[in-house]
Amino acid sequence: MTVETSIALGRFGLGPSPRTPDAVRTAPREWVQAQVRAADVPQALRMFPSSASTMKALGEAAREGTEALKRVTGERYREVFAAEVMALVAHRVTTDAPFLERMVMFWSNHFTVSRAKAVIGPAIPAFEREAIRPHVFGRFEDMLLAAASHPVMLDYLDNHLSVGPASPAGQRSGRSLNENLARELLELHTLGVNGGYTQQDVRAFAQVLTGWTHGGVAPRKSTAPITGTFVYRDRMHEPGPKRVLGRRYESAGIEQGRAVLRALARHPSTASFVATKLVRHFVADAPPAADVARIATVFLDTQGDLAAVSRAVVQLGAAWETALPKVKSPVELVISTHRALGMPSLRRDTLLVPLKTLGQVPFSAASPQGWPDTADHWLSPESLKQRIAFARAIAARSTVSPDELLTQFAPIATDQLRTWMSRAPSGDAAVALLLASPTFQRR
Amino acid sequence: MKRRTFVQLATGLALAGPGLALAAAPTDRRLVVVVLRGGLDALHAVPPTDDPDYRSARPTLAVPPPGQPDGALALDGVFGLHPKLAPLHPLYREHELFVLHAATTSYRGRSHFDGQNQLENGTGRPFGASDGWLNRAIAALYQGGRLGLALGPSVPLMIQGDAGVATWADSPLPSVDEDFLDRLAHVYAPDASFASTFAQSRQTLVPSTAAIAERGKELTHAATVAADFLVRDDGPRIAVVESTGWDTHFSQQRRLDTLFEQLSAALLALRAGLREQWAQSVVVVVSEFGRTVAENGSRGTDHGVGGLALVLGGSVAGGRVVGDWPGLQTGQRHEGRDLQPANAYEALFKGLLIEHLDLSPKAIEARVFPQSAHLRPLSGLLRR
């Protein structure tokens, strides 16, 4: 095993496991690159319902009344959300394509939808499965369109409530714009906050997006069928051409929004914003400018071909120079711990409960910005204490031998770690020392 | 990660016995900053209820004037206090609470994240520093120990930095044996950031049983635990408490009803927990920005620049709504839409650091709020 093998497994994967394939040892970079290919939804996730079915159930309950909505939301959280989150985390513990999963996690965080808004919560894992996963090695534009028109995103960022004041619906009801989705699409999903847009652009883009809603919105008195899928309603759409980022959009209806999103996907600010985030995630908290420029160029040249972009990230020289520059997020930590220990049974109390303690319950980021991606957020005195407590507790349940575990980390283990593992008073203390060590906590 | 300065203490000593977290605290004054993340709607919390521009901009959201059903509680003839903040009304009447209205930082954009960065780093720029102004204030005040306190698993940027900060978070995991931790210290030795973070994590604060029993409402629990630490003679003096959920783009009335109740309860818990120290405590409540004057299409409000600050404490010169009031006519609004930020948070923070913590204006201008000389510190904030 070489340092490159450890980097392939840690930086571009979810850590080694007793089942680590030989291919990683013989050709680590090729092993990562080989995962860049269109992938089906994993078998383990196919049994779960579509977002449309969940949104429909929630919409019908909302029409019935507050009590029904509470009841159905609770049921769906228990029966759909909790089950799929568990299956998803378990899949990531056992997958043979961890780079693919890392990319799903990266993009799912880029297009954050959070159960901080409780009503749509049960459908969020389906959002990731439907809008993110199919596109991680496809085109950015397709992912952007899928995310921006997904019922769960439209509801999370309030666009289903946004009405063009001059539209028929606006004229009749006096309702008007809600600029939340338009602003976050510009700031968080495409251009970035310094990407060169103004308040006028936010406003105009919000007008462009009026009418983008979903069929689960249920006026109490209406008898219209509830569908739970994306719906474009022309009677809510602000009529007329709009000017966004200096370009005039004449097209009518839904095409206007699609045209703006396509332009945003190809904008140079989007390329450098996305490149910065990718390099920060895979290379270093302070992303080297040359690497960002390289990835941005590939993004622009290929019109956002995320397979080409992903390959280019793996090819960055800097990614293979330093073994352990990043501190793992809690999700990466908990998953890689289970992989390293070869945990035969996957349980809520070791998978999901620690994520709550460590502050990263899946799909519950505090804001649409998503989870942070730097050590100064994840490594605080209080969180380190929790990381150590988790290592100690899970090591006590594991039967892995410390020597075998150490072998998985041989190229990057420090002398101090080897020494103190060899002096440990018990096997599980030795295992816990490794799990709590920077060798394991970093990637 | 930056090198952090801290005093190495034998673990366990911080709980009891002499000479603990702070051998000789530089001050007995307490300062708590409550950060409301998401953008508090100042015009909902402290509405100018009779202003016709307010009522016309908010056909469904305007808070009724005092005396009407669900009406505001009268403050000064112009402004009222939202009825769900009623528990704070006695503090206002007893001159322990003032409002700095139409205020925000020098940030003029509408991004939560840049706005919060600027509120916390104190440099006038969203990425102007990787440490927080409150941490730099602590460093200017005292080098001897952990004067600061942060609650929750991560440390808010406002109080991140070189000065030592005590931390506490609720955990269901069992505590780890000291023998293991001693061994782990050797494993951490070659990694500077793990080694220093680990050393800080071993100086553990333990809340009293009574404070732990207050579990439930998260914000109130955080306030209770914070007060429990702050009230101790050898405890920290300066804390940050965070609250999320203030980004009310829709159904604002219902959501702020709940949040105002929680905020009121948390602030009262701070006052109760600080006991006799309340007389020398200041609590300041801020948010990264405010919201639009007019309501949006979904019975909510969108991001807008001007907000407000609430300042509470046993010695504050309360019972007033202070600062310039810009008015709400379209021409008086910021860019025709937001509450005009006529007053500066930085001026308030600087005034509090001077009057309450006795920091020198020179140190403040040099280190805490660099390049902010044009924002003159507010004065007359305290009664003493």
Which short descriptors sum up this protein?
heterodimer, A: 443 residues, mainly alpha, two-stranded antiparallel ribbon, two-stranded antiparallel sheet, 3% strand, globular, B: 384 residues, alpha/beta, 12 helices
Describe the structure.
The complex is a heterodimer of chains A (443) and B (384). Chain A is an all-alpha fold. Chain A has helices spanning 3-10, 22-26, 28-33, 51-64, 66-94, 98-110, 124-132, 140-148, 151-156, 168-173, 180-189, 199-209, 253-265, 268-282, 289-301, 306-315, 330-341, 348-351, 353-357, 375-378, 381-395, 402-408, 415-422, 427-436, 438-441; strands at 212-214, 230-232, 242-244, 247-249. In chain B, the strands form three sheets. In chain B, strands 1, 4, 5, 6, 7, 8, 11, 12 and 13 form a nine-stranded mixed β-sheet that branches. Chain B has 384 residues and is an alpha/beta fold. Chain B has helices spanning 42-45, 52-57, 89-93, 112-121, 133-141, 178-188, 192-201, 209-213, 218-230, 252-274, 345-355, 361-368, and strands at 30-36, 73-74, 80-81, 97-104, 148-151, 165-168, 238-243, 281-287, 290-291, 303-304, 307-312, 320-322, 343-344. Chain B is globular and about 70 Å long. Helix content of chain B is 30%, strand content 14%. Classes of the chains: A mainly alpha (443), B alpha/beta (384). At the A-B interface, α11, α19, α20, α21 and α23 of A face α4, α6 and α7 of B.
